[in-house]
Amino acid sequence: MKKRQLVLIGVIFSLFSLALGMDFIFTKERNLSIYAEKIEDALQHKESQAEAFLSDTVFIVRQYRGFKNLSSTEQQELLQKEKALSTAPFNLCLYEGDSLIFWAQNRAFLNEAQLRVFSAQPEFRKIFLLPNGYYYALKKTFDFPGHNRYGIALIPVRNNYALESEHLQNQFLTEGRYIPKEIVFSEKPTPFVLHAGDGTELGWITNEGDFHDITQLKWILLIYLLGFIALGVLINDFAIQLVRKYRPWVGAAFLISTIFIIRYVTIKYEFTNNFKDLVTFADTFSKPVLNSSSSLGDLLINIVLLLWTMVFFHREFQVQKFLGVSRPVRYALTTFNYFSVILGLIMILGVFKSLVLDSDIAFDFDNVLNLNVYSILAIFGIILLILALFLFSHRMMLTIAQIGLGKYPRIAAFTGAVVASLPFVYLSDLNISMVFFLLSVVIYVWAFDLFIEHKSPNLTWLVIWLVLFSLFSSIALFKYNNDRDLQTRIRYAYELANLRDSLAEESFQQLHPKIAQSPGLQALTQTKTRLSKDDLNELVNQPFSEDKYLFHNYAFNAEAFYMEDGTPVSTEILDSLEQLRRFYNQARQTAHAGLRYHLRMARYFMRTELPGPHPVLLFMEFKHKSSNPSKVYAELLLNQQYKDLRNLDQYDYAIYKKGVLVESKGAEYEQYITEALPPVGQWKELVHSSKRSELIYHAPDNIVVQIGKDMGTYLKPISLFSYLFGLLILTVLLLSLINSVTHVLPEALHFSFSKTPSLRNRIQFAVISLILVSFLIIGLVSVWHFRNSSSEYHQGRLERKVHSIRANVEQVIEQQYKLRGGVSGLEDLVVPLSDIHRLDVNIYDLHGNLISSSEQDVFRKGILAPKMGGFAYQSVHHVGRPMEVQLESIGDLQYQSAYIPLTDPEGHPLAYIGVPYYSQLRDLQNDVSEFMGALLNVYVFLLLIAGGIAIAVANSITKPISDLGDSLKRLKLGRNEPLLWESKDELGELIAEYNRMIKKLEESTDLLAQSEREGAWREMAKQVAHEIKNPLTPMKLSIQYMLHAYQSNPANIGPLIERVSRTLIEQIDSLAQIASEFSNFAKMPQAQNTKFLLNDLVISVHNLFANERQDMDISLFTPDRAFYVYADKKHLTRVLNNLIKNAIQAIPDERKGRIEIHLNQKDDRVVIKVSDNGVGISEEMRNKVFVPNFTTKNSGTGLGLAISKNIIEAVHGKIYFHTEVGHGTDFFVELPLIDVEEIQEVQ
Predict the structure, then answer these.
(1) What is the C-alpha to C-alpha distance for residues 473 and 386, in angstroms, rounded to an integer?
(2) What's the CA gap between 435 and 238, in Å, rounded?
(3) Helices and strands, counts by H and E, the chain
C-alpha cells in the first residue's frame, strides 16, 4: 500500500471520528451553555455602547437644556448624535420624573408600572417582557441638583411578537450566531445564566422542545463531506491500481460496486435525514428523482457520483479498434451506442422535469438574477449533470468512430436507435414536443460527429458546446416552468372556484367561543350601552386578531342588537337587524353552528347570542381581503396565504358568479364576463399576446374563475439562456483550474490551462477577457448608478406622496375651520388616505404619541410602539424642519418613514403625519435585477460575437504563422513549396523572407547533392572495387599455380584443373552475388501489396528458423487476436529473415543462443519485436546501423538493414532498435493495422 493511501486512510478515520464525536460533544446542555455565552456576549457588547451614550455628559446636558437653547453648531452636533442613535441596537430614553424628554427609537418603551420599579434606585439592571420582546433595561441617574433626571437604555434581547411572519421571528438577538427558536427565557433558575457587564444576574435560558443547531449541523456536514471526498479519492486510487494490474473492467467493477454499496447504506440507514433541518436536505420532491432522491442534497450527491463514474469510465477505458468483427455486429454496436446517447438525453430531460414540476424549488425565470441560493444549487446540479452527459456521450461517440461504419450505415444505425428510444420517451412522460426532442437529438449527435472528426478541441468547439447546452437547457427548463405555472394556476382556479374556505371555517369555529367569552362583549350585556362603530369593531377585533389566518385574509364588520327590543348597540349601523337576519337565513349552513356562507355575496355570516341581563345578538360579516404589498405593515404582517395558496400574490384573478364579478385582485377585470366559456368542469388558456396569459376555469354552480399573469416578453427565455451560459462559463473555468492541478478529467478534452498557451489562444483570451472585464466594470458602475438614481427617484416619490397626503389633510382642515372654526376627527382620515395613496398613514400628536393609524393592529399588538421616530420628532418638532425621512426597522424589515407637520390655516402645528415607505427597498432590488438581466443578455451576445471575432482575428494572424511552422517542419534539402501571402504587412515580409530562404536552400541543395553524388559514386566505386578485388586475388593465384603446374608437369595437371575450376566458379559466383546485392539496393523490386494475416507470416518464419537452428532457443509469443496488414508479403518475409539471421550471427559461439519473437499491438499499429542475447551494438556504431555498407560481421555487404528500412518505410511503418552492449539487442518493426472497412476503401 502506498504512502498516499495510508495518509488517506488516516484522514478518513480522523474526519469521520471527528464528525461522530461532535454529536457526543455538543449535547443539549453543552449547546445551552454556548448559547448563554453568545447571548451574554452580544448583550454586554450592546450594554457597553449604551453606557457610552449614558455617560456622554455633553449629550445629556444638551438634551435637558432644550434644543432651542443651543447654538446652531451645538444643534447640528446634537442632531448627528440623535441620527446615529436612531439606528443603534438599543433605544435610549431620557426622563425627568415620569415624563419622557427624549427617545431615540419607536421600538419599545417601559410603561408606568415598570418605570416605578426603577424609581427607588439610581442604578438598576433588569430584563423586562415588553409587548414585542424581552429587553434588558439599564438605568443611570444623572446629577442634576433638584431634578429627578435619569436615562434608560432598552436593549433588545429576544423578540417575542404577538404574531410571527417572514420578517417577525421570535428568537434571541445575537451578533453572527444563530440561536434556535426553541431557546427561551426560563422563569425558574437553570444552570444557564445571563449576566450583565457588572456581573448582575439577569435571567436564565432553557429550551422548549427539541432543537438542532444549524451552525453545528453545517460544520458536521462539511466534515462528513471532506471525509467522503477523501474516501472517494482512496477508492479511485484502488480502482486505478486494479486497472493497471489487471484489466479496466476489474477496476470499474470495484469502483461501481463500492459506490453502490456505500450509497445504498447511506440511503438504507437514512444518513442524510440527520441534516433535514438544513434546507438542502429537506424533503423537496413530491416523488423521488430517479427513484432515489427526495431532497436536493441527495440529488446533488447522486449527480456527483454519476459524474465521477463517467470520468473514470472515460479515462480508464481506452477506445479499441474493432478488428476482425463482422459487419452485423458492428452495426448492432453502433446502434447500441447511439441508443445509449439518446437515453442519456432522455434521462437529463427527466431530471429537468422533476426539478421544476415535482419539487418545491422556486425557479423565478421571469427574473433569473433573483434566484435564491437553493435554485442556484439546483442549476449547478444541472450543469454537473450536463458535464456527465457530455463525457458519457463523447466516450460513446468515440467508440462509434472506432467501429468504423461508413456514412450511410451509421445514419441507418442512428435512425434505428431513435426509433428504439421512442417508447422510452413515451414511458418517461417527458411532456415535451416530439419535434423538439428529435431536433435536439439530431443536432446533438451531429455536433458530436463533427467534434470527433475534428479531433482537436479548441475555443471554437468550447463556445459551440456551451451554446448548445445552454440553449437546450434553457428551452427545456423554461418550457417546464411554464407547465408548472399552468398547473399552479389550474390548482388555484379549482381552489378559488370553491368560494368557501375550509381553513377559515376551522378558524371561525375556534373564534366563536372566544367572542362569546370576550370580557368586552360580555360587558355589553350587563348594562345597555351605545358604542361607536369603531369601538364595537375594536371589541370584536381583540379575539379576531389572535387568529393569524383570519387576521391576514379576512376583513369583518360587526353589528350588535339588544335582543329585548332590537336596539342597535352601535350608533352607526350599515345593515338593519331585519336585513342581517335575511342575509343569514339565505346563506348556506356550514358544518359549524352559527356560521353560514352566502354564495351570492361571497361572504360568511356568524350569529352569536351573548346571554346576560340584557342579552345581545351579534352578527359578524366576514369577507376575504387582499393585502396590499406596497404597504409596509401589510408586508410585515403577511404570514399565511389565502387557502394556503402560497404564490397567489403572483397572479391576478377574478371570480364570477352567474357572469357577474364577485371578487377580483390585481388587474382590472370586466364587471361581466365576456369570454367564451369552456364546458363545465374544464379549463382553457387564453394567450392574448406574448406578454399576457389568462386561464379560465368553468366550475359548477355558474362559477367562473379567471386567473392571469404577465408572461413577459421573449427576453425571458433569452435571459435564462444568458444566465445558464454565464454559469457554464464559470463552471468550465473552475473545472479547468481544478484539473490543471489535479489532472482528473480526460486528457483528450484538454480541459486545463496550458502553462505555455499558443499565440492563437493568447489573442482569443485577451479579446474575451477584455469583454468580461468591461462587463464587470460597466455592470458595477451601472448598478451603483442605478441604485443611486433609483434611490433618488423613490426619495422624490416619497416626498411627493407625503406632500400630496398633507395637501389632502390640510384641505379637510381648512374646510372644517370654515364650517366650525376648528378641527376634529383627524383619525377618521387615515384609512381613506391609505386607500387612495396605497401607503400606510399614521397621525401623531404634538408629543409624538400615536393618534390613529391605517393599520392599528401593528400598534395594538405591540409590534411597534405608538410613538414617532425619535430623530424625526426632534428634527420636525424642535428644529422645525418641513419634513424628515429616517430609516426604521421592525424585526428584520427595514424601511423608511417620512414625517411632516400638519398646521391649521394660521400656521399653528396640529399634529404630525408619518408615512412608512417600503417599496423603495423592495422594488429597487427587482429593478436592479431586471437591469442586470438585460445587461447580461447584451453582454452574452457581445461575448459570442467577440468570441467569433477573436477566433477569426487569431486565425488570420496565426494561420500564416502555423503554415510557416508546418513548412519549416517539412523543410528538407531539395525543392520546397513557397507560401502565398498577398498582404504586404509584417507577416508578408516574414513569408517573403521564408520564400527567399527556401530558394537559396534549393540552390545550395543542388550543389550539395552534386557533391554528395560524386562522393557517393567514389565511395561506391571504392567499395565495389574492394569487393571485386577480394575474389580476383585467389582467382589470379589459382590460374598462376595451374600455369606453373602445366609447365612443370603437364601429365598430372587433370586433378589440379578440376580443383582450380571449382575455385574459379566459387569466386565468380561471389562476384555475381556482389553485383546482385548492389543492384537490389539501387533499385528495389516493385512491391505487390495485399491484405494478409501477419500472424501466419511470423509463425512461418519462426518455424523455418526453429527447425534449422535447433541449437538455439527461438521462441514465439503471439496474442489470440488477428492482425491484418497491407503490404508485400515477400518483402516482409525478407525483412524478418534478415533480422533473425542478424540475431543468430550476433550471438557468440560460446554463448547459448536465445532469440524471442513477440507480436503485439500498440494503439493502431502492430509491433514485431526480435530480441537476441548477443553482443549488442556499440555506442559509436549505433548511428550507422541503417546506413548502407554497415556490418558488424566479417563478411557481407552491409545492405540488409538498409534494404529492410526501405521496405518498412514504404508501407508507412517504422523500424528501430534498443541495445545493451554485452546483453543483446531488440529490433522493433511497427506496421499500421488495417480493418475490413479500410480494405474495402483501398480496393
Answers:
(1) 9
(2) 46
(3) 31, 30
1149 falls in which pLDDT band (50, 70, 90)? confident
* 831 grid coordinates: 384609512
Which cell numbers in the block locate residue 1146?
550476433
Residue whose entry in the numeric block shows the C-alpha cell 442549476: 379
Instruction: Using CB atoms within 10 Å of the CB of residue 1202, give its burial: 0 to 12 exposed, 13 to 18 middle, 19+ buried.
Output: middle
How far does the chain reach from its first CA to its final CA, in angstroms? 54
- Say which amino acid occupies 274: N
All three cell numbers of 1044, joined, read 606453373
- What are phi and psi for residue 235, nearest 5 degrees? -60, -40
Local structure of residue 1226 (DSSP, 8 states): E
- CA dist 1012 and 1019 (Å) reads 10
Cell 508546418 -> residue: 966
Residue 937 backbone phi and psi in degrees, to 5: -60, -50
Place 530 in a pLDDT band, splitting at 50, 70 and 90: confident
Q: Which pTM value belongs to this model? A: 0.72
Residues forming beta bridges with residue 597, ordered by sequence position:
588, 604
Q: Indicate the SS3 state at residue 984.
A: coil
**207: closest CA among 29, 421, 399?**
29
pLDDT, mean of residues 768-781: 77
Distance of CA 484 to the CA centre of its chain: 21
AA identity, residue 815: Q
As a dihedral over the C-alpha atoms of residue 1052, residue 1056, residue 1058, residue 1061, rounded to 10 degrees, the angle is -140
Can you tell me the distance from the alpha carbon of 153 to that of 125, in angstroms, rounded to the nearest whole number? Answer: 10
CA 288 from chain center: how many Å? Answer: 20
Q: Are 736 and 753 in contact (CB under 8 A)?
A: yes
Q: Count the Cβ atoms, other than its own, within 10 Å of residue 794.
A: 18
Q: How far apart are CA 863 and CA 637, in angstroms?
A: 10
- The percent of residues above 90 in pLDDT, for the chain, comes to 25
Residue 161, φ and ψ in degrees, nearest 5: -75, 155
Q: Are residues 459 and 947 in contact, defined by beta-carbon separation less than 8 angstroms? A: yes
Rounded to an integer, the average pLDDT of 133-137 is 94
Q: Considering the chain, what is the average pLDDT of its residues?
A: 83
For residue 1032, the tally of other CB atoms under 10 A from its CB is 12
Helix (H), strand (E) at residue 857: helix 856-860
Q: Which residues are CB-contacts of 553 (< 8 A; sequence separation ≥ 6)?
A: 501, 504, 624, 625, 640, 641, 642
Q: In what order do the strands lie in the sheet with 201-207?
A: 183-186, 201-207, 193-195
- Segment (H or E) for 253: helix 248-268
How far apart are alpha carbons 498 and 59 in whole angstroms? 62
Bridge partners of 664, per DSSP, are 654
pLDDT computed for residue 785 by the predictor:
78
User: In what helix (H) or strand (E) does residue 488 lie, and over which residues does it extend?
Assistant: helix 459-497
Mean pLDDT of all residues in 555-573: 88
Burial grade of 131 (CB within 10 A; 0-12, 13-18, 19 or more): middle
Burial class (CB in 10 A: 0-12, 13-18, 19+), 157: buried
Q: Give per-residue pLDDT as tens, 1088-1123.
A: 888 888 988 998 888 888 877 777 888 988 887 788
Residue 155: beta bridge partners? 136
Strand, coil or helix: 829: helix
Distance CA 375, CA 386 (A): 17
Residue 73: strand, helix, or coil:
helix
Q: Which three cell numbers stand for residue 294?
A: 427526495
The number of residues making up the chain comes to 1243
DSSP sequence for 1037-1092: HHHHHHHHHHHH-GGGHHHHHHHHHHHHHHHHHHHHHHHHHHHHHHSPPPP--EEE
Cβ contacts of 72 within 8 Å, gap of 6 or more? none
Distance, in Å, from the CA atom of 926 to the CA atom of 312, rounded to the nearest integer, reads 44
Q: Is the predicted pLDDT of residue 320 greater than 80, yes or no?
A: no
Beta bridge partners, 895, equal: 888
Cell matching residue 32: 445551552
